[in-house]
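Lay summary. Proteins are chains of building blocks that fold into shapes, and those shapes determine what they do. In this project we predict the shape from the chain. Here is one chain we studied, written as its sequence of building blocks.
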Amino acid sequence: MNGRGSRYIFIFLVLSSFLMIFPFYWTVSSSMKLESEILASPPQWWPNPIIFSNYVKLFLHIPNFGLYFFNSTAVTIVVTFCQVLLSTLAGYAFAKLKFPGRDGIFFVMLLGLMIPLQVNLIPLYKIMDLFHWLDTYWALVVPNAVSIFNVFLMRQYMQSLPDELFEAARIDGCSEFFIFLKIALPLSLAGTTTLIIFSVMNSWNSFLWPRIVTHTETLFVLPVGLSQIQMKTVINHGEILAGTTLTALPLILLFMFMQNYFIDGMTAGAVKE
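And here is the predicted shape, written in a compact code that computers can read:
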């Protein structure tokens, strides 16, 4: 590729990055503005003066905001643990074990990816009601404990691992669980990290399902709690943007610390050797 083509690609990437970063910049900067500056026309690109009262008012007007944060954290940790455990086990089974109907079962699971989430809401709600789990933490955790996409992700990644390692371990008399624990799991660190990021992101940002199955305010997660701000007080855009910033910050920090593993995990399983 010639130098001019490289420059065009670079310019395109810079513009694309700007389009993705700008909404977050606007959210953070506006959370430190006065209400009049947020709604000003033409827009004020930088807060003047910089204030942090919106963050203080957020906790004063929404005293349960800390509880929402705790609920999101607790649910995300439990869901992510279940996702990692079940998806890695299933991915190993579909990639490295031979059993009757393996490919057929996996094909049927992939068909489940074609079903929109909205189609499953009523059946899932009925199941939660049958088990008397509505308005409990169980309803927030159990339906999200496993994901077909994450099973597919780990299966594709583990298929890229050399079969000779597993055959040698079986010849030495190792059990399948020992092989999974001592060989497959350590070698799948990059894929598992990608799985963790996806699981945390989906659970942390989940709004529709928690909004349907929880009615008690002490069980609200952050996205649901934020939606209540404009319903309980006079709409204060600064407080809403402050809450949005605090909600997005953990995910951004997580990705910053794990981005190298994430990139490796997304590319290593792309092609089966």
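What the prediction tells us: Residues 269-273 have pLDDT under 50 and may be disordered.
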